[in-house]
Design brief:
Arc Repressor Mutant, subunit A; 4 helices; about 15% strand
Amino acid sequence: MKGSYLGEFQEIVLLTVMLLDGNGYGVNIQSELSNKIGREITRGALHSALTRLEEKGFIKSDMGGSTAERGGRKKRFYEITAFGIQALEEAQRNRNKFYQLLPRLIKNFS
């Protein structure tokens, strides 16, 4: 398992996987993510992030059954792990440390 550092894009991909609650696969993760952040996400960028997240142990994946609508191809479904939840909690704590300092600093610029 690689390090536990969670970059911004990986964080929002991980949050999206968590929101989809085990029903997340490439296309609907991409769509949900694009809708939430208001910008297009390339399939390549998403799959790179999903691969890294899985290598780090933050998500796991399983292949679903093949369907006629997909020409017999299977979907890979992603699900967050307990380690992934811990990584999100740590990222949130780290961000909150900075956001809590902002009101005090903003007073200095007013």
